[in-house]
Design goal:
The complex is a heterodimer of chains A (495) and B (171). Chain A is mostly helical and 495 residues long. Chain A has helices at residues 2-13, 15-33, 39-49, 55-80, 89-100, 104-137, 142-160, 165-179, 205-223, 240-244, 247-262, 268-282, 294-318, 324-335, 344-347, 351-378, 385-402, 407-425, 431-454, 459-462, 464-478, 482-494, and strands at 182-183, 190-191. In chain B, 78% of the residues lie in helices and 0% in strands.
Chain lengths: 495, 171
C-alpha cells in the first residue's frame, strides 16, 4: 500500500503534474462529450502524442483521459439525448428527460458524483482483490460470453422499450443482424456485402451509434419553432444527503460494474446496462424509469465508471484487457516497456498500486474538472435547436469519419440514421440497437466457437455459469407473457 | 378526454406498427433465406462438426427471431387498431405534402447533398459552411447575416479542432 500513497502524494505535490492532470481530464471530458470521439479513440490519440514523455507522466495523462471520457459521454447524453460514448446510451434514458424538466445541471452533478464513487469503487477492487477476481473471470469460456452478450442485449431491449417490450428486442436483433455484415470472424466468409468492397470490413458501431442517435434527433428538433427556454433549476453541486440516499444503488451498481468490467472484452457498456436493470428491478418507483429517474442515471454512471477499475484488473494481472479502451491502454503500456501479466508484480513491483493511485487522483480530478466544465456545457440548452442541430450534425459527421478516417463510415452513419428515423417515430428504442451492433460479433463468434469446440450444445446446460445465464435469459423472455406472470401472481394470492 | 386522446394516439401508432411490421417481416424473410444459403456451405468445421458452426447460423437465428417478433407485432397491431382504412391513407397522404414533412425531407436531402456531393467536390471548410448556412436558412433560425457568421465560425472551429489539434485528415 506504500506505493499507492506515495503515488498520490507525488501527484498532488507536483504543480506540473497537477496542471497536466487538469488539462488531460478536461480534454477527456470534451472528447467523451463530443459524439463520435470515444474513450478508446481519446486514449489512442494521446498514446502517440505522449510517447516521448516519461512513463509515469504518460500514464497519468492516459488515465485522466480514460476517466474523463467515460464521464464526458454522459454530458451530451443528458443535454442533447446524444450519448458521447456507447456506455452513456443508458444515461440518456433518464438524463435527457431530467434536462427537459429543467434539471440538467442537477443530473450532471449527480452523474459526476456517481462517476467519482464508481471509479473509486473499481479502484478499491483493483487494489484489494485483483488477482483473485481475475482468476474468476478466466473461468468464463465462449459459452458464457455468448450468453452474457445475448442477455445484455435482451436486458437493454427490456428496460429501454417505451411502448411494447418486444420493440426493444426487435431493435436489439436488428443491431445484431447489422453486425453480421462483412467478413465473419471464424470462417472469413462474407455476409450481406452485396459485393461492395467497403462492406467487407463490416459496420463499425461508432458510426452506427452516432447515426441512429443523431439523425432522428436532428430532423425532429430542426422543425421545432423556437422553444421556450427550459428554466434550469437545481445546483450542479447536488447535496451530499441526496446522493447518500442512493447509497444502496451505488454499492450495487459499483459491484455489478466492476464484476462486468473484469470479464475480458465486455466492458463499460454492459456494466451500465446491468446496473440500470438491477436498479429498475429493485426500485419501488419502477414507472419513473425512462421519464427522469435519478436512480437510473446514478446506476448507469456508477456502473460504467466502476467498470474502468474492473477492466484494468485483468489487463494488469493477466494481460487481457477488460474493455476496448483498456485494450488501447495495453498498447500504451507495452509502448512504455511494461508487459502486463502474471509476471508484472515481479518485474515491476508496486505497479498495480501505482495505477491504483493514478486512478484515485484521476477520479478526484474528474470531480473538480466536472464542476468547472458543467457550467459551460449546460449553456448549450440555451441555444436554439435550429442553430444547434446543424452544428451537432457536422460534429457527428466528423466523429463518424474520424474513428477510421473513412468516408464510408459517414455514409453508413447517415443512411442508418435516416432509416432508423421511422423506427424512432414508432417508438422503437435506439439504445438496444447500438448494443446489438457492439455485442453482435462477440455473441456470434463465441456461440459458434462453443458449438465447434464442444461439438454440440451441451456446455450451455452443463457449465454452471452458462446455465444460470441461460435460465435468466429464458425467464426474462417468459415474464413477457401474461400467462406466465399470472402463474406467479396466482400462487402469491393462494398463499 | 385525455384518456380518449391517448386511445386515439395508440390506435394511430398501431396502424403505423402494422405497416412497419409488414416491412420488417419482408426484410426478415429475405435475411432468413440469405442466411440459410450460408448454413449449407462447404467450409472447414461445417463438414466435420455440423451445420451449426456455419457462418449463416447466427443471422439465421436472428432472422427467425425477427420473423416471430414481426408476426407478434402484426397481430397486436391488427387487434388493437382494427386495420387500416381508406381515411387513414388519405390522412397520411395529406401529411406527406404538409410543411412539417417537407422541411424534414428538405433537411434530409441537404444532409445527403453535403455528404455525397459537397464533401467530395470542395474543401471541407467551404462545404461545411455551405451546409450550415443552408440548413439554418431553411428553418429560418435567425437573420441571414447571423447565420452566415455562425456558419463560418463553426466551420473554421471544427476544421481547427479536428484538422490541426487532433491531426485528423479531413474528408
Amino acid at each position: 500500500m506504500g506505493d499507492f500513497f506515495a503515488t498520490i502524494a507525488h501527484l498532488f505535490t507536483s504543480p506540473n503534474i497537477i496542471v497536466i492532470m487538469f488539462l488531460s481530464n478536461i480534454l477527456g471530458i470534451v472528447i467523451g462529450a463530443l459524439p463520435g470521439l470515444t474513450a478508446t479513440m481519446g486514449i489512442a490519440l494521446l498514446t502517440g502524442l505522449t510517447y516521448a514523455l516519461p512513463r509515469d507522466v504518460a500514464l497519468v495523462i492516459l488515465m485522466n483521459i480514460y476517466v474523463g471520457a467515460i464521464y464526458g459521454g454522459s454530458i451530451s447524453a443528458i443535454l442533447l439525448n446524444i450519448p458521447g460514448t456507447g456506455s452513456a446510451a443508458v444515461t440518456a434514458l433518464d438524463g435527457y428527460p431530467l434536462a427537459l424538466q429543467g434539471k440538467a445541471g442537477y443530473a450532471i452533478g449527480m452523474t459526476r458524483m456517481a462517476s467519482l464513487v464508481g471509479t473509486l469503487f473499481g479502484m478499491i477492487m483493483l487494489m484489494t482483490i485483483a488477482p483473485q477476481l481475475a482468476k474468476i473471470a478466466l473461468m468464463f469460456t465462449s459459452a458464457e460470453f455468448a450468453l452474457l452478450g445475448l442477455f445484455g442485449v435482451l436486458i437493454a431491449g427490456f428496460v429501454a422499450g417505451e411502448d411494447l417490450k418486444i420493440k426493444g428486442w426487435i431493435s436489439g436483433f436488428l443491431g445484431m443482424l447489422v453486425s453480421c455484415i462483412g467478413i465473419d470472424n471464424l470462417h472469413a466468409y462474407t455476409r450481406f456485402t452485396f459485393d461492395i468492397p467497403m462492406l467487407m470490413i463490416g459496420v463499425s458501431f461508432v458510426p452506427a451509434m452516432i447515426g441512429v442517435f443523431t439523425i432522428p434527433q436532428l430532423l425532429d428538433n430542426l422543425k421545432l419553432s423556437l422553444p421556450e427556454r427550459i428554466q434550469q433549476i437545481g445546483s450542479i453541486l447536488p447535496k451530499i444527503s441526496e446522493f447518500l440516499k442512493q447509497l444502496p444503488n451505488v454499492i450495487r451498481s459499483g459491484l455489478i460494474g466492476t464484476a462486468i468490467g473484469i470479464i475480458p472484452g465486455v466492458g463499460e457498456d454492459i456494466g451500465a446496462w446491468m446496473s440500470y436493470f438491477a436498479a429498475k428491478s429493485m426500485s419501488k418507483d419502477k414507472d419513473k424509469f425512462g421519464k427522469g429517474a435519478v436512480e437510473g442515471i446514478v446506476a448507469a454512471e456508477t456502473g460504467n465508471n466502476a467498470a474502468i477499475g474492473g477492466a484494468i484488473i485483468p489487463l494488469l494481472t493477466l494481460g487481457v484487457p477488460g474493455s476496448p479502451p483498456a485494450a488501447v491502454l495495453l498498447g500504451a503500456l507495452l509502448l512504455h516497456g511494461i508487459r502486463p501479466g502474471p509476471m508484472l508484480p515481479f518485474e515491476f513491483p508496486g505497479f498495480i498500486q501505482e495505477m491504483g493511485g493514478i486512478l484515485f487522483v484521476a477520479s478526484i480530478m474528474l470531480f473538480v474538472c466536472g464542476i468547472l466544465v458543467a457550467r459551460f456545457f449546460v449553456k448549450v440548452l440555451d441555444i436554439s435547436p435550429k442553430i444547434l442541430m446543424p452544428i451537432v450534425a457536422v460534429l457527428a459527421i466528423m466523429g463518424a469519419y474520424a474513428i477510421n478516417i473513412r468516408i464510408f463510415d459517414v455514409y453508413v452513419m447517415v443512411l442508418m440514421g435516416l432509416g432508423y428515423y421511422f423506427l424512432v417515430k414508432l417508438k422503437y428504442p435506439v439504445a438496444p440497437f447500438v448494443l446489438g451492433v457492439i455485442l453482435g460479433p462477440m455473441i456470434d463468434e463465441n456461440l459458434r466457437r462453443t458449438f465447434w469446440v464442444y461439438k454440440g450444445f451441451t456446455p450451455f446446460v452443463t457449465r454452471p455459469v452458462a446455465l444460470v445465464l441461460l435460465v435468466a435469459t429464458i425467464l426474462l423472455l417468459l415474464f413477457q407473457f401474461s400467462w406466465f406472470t399470472n402463474l406467479f401472481s396466482r400462487r402469491r394470492t393462494i398463499r | 378526454m385525455e384518456e380518449r386522446r391517448e386511445d386515439q394516439d395508440k390506435k394511430e401508432l398501431r396502424k403505423k406498427d402494422l405497416l412497419l411490421s409488414l416491412v420488417l417481416l419482408g426484410v426478415s424473410i429475405w435475411t432468413w433465406i440469405e442466411s440459410l444459403k450460408m448454413v449449407f456451405v462447404d467450409l472447414p468445421g461445417v463438414k466435420d462438426v455440423g451445420w451449426f458452426v456455419a457462418p449463416g447460423v447466427f443471422p439465421l437465428i436472428l432472422s427467425s427471431g425477427l420473423i416471430v417478433m414481426s408476426l407478434i407485432i402484426l397481430w397486436i397491431a391488427i387487434r388493437e387498431s382494427g386495420g387500416i382504412k381508406r381515411e387513414d391513407w388519405k390522412k397520411w397522404g395529406k401529411y406527406l405534402v404538409s410543411d412539417d414533412f417537407l422541411i424534414t425531407l428538405l433537411e434530409a436531402a441537404l444532409l445527403l447533398f453535403y455528404i455525397f456531393f459537397l464533401l467530395k467536390r470542395i474543401r471541407f471548410s467551404v462545404a461545411t459552411t455551405i451546409y450550415l448556412f443552408l440548413s439554418m436558412l431553411i428553418v429560418r433560425a435567425t437573420s441571414w447575416y447571423k447565420i452566415a457568421l455562425i456558419s463560418v465560425a463553426v466551420s473554421l472551429g471544427v476544421t481547427y479542432l479536428f484538422g490541426s489539434l487532433f491531426k485528423i485528415p479531413l474528408p
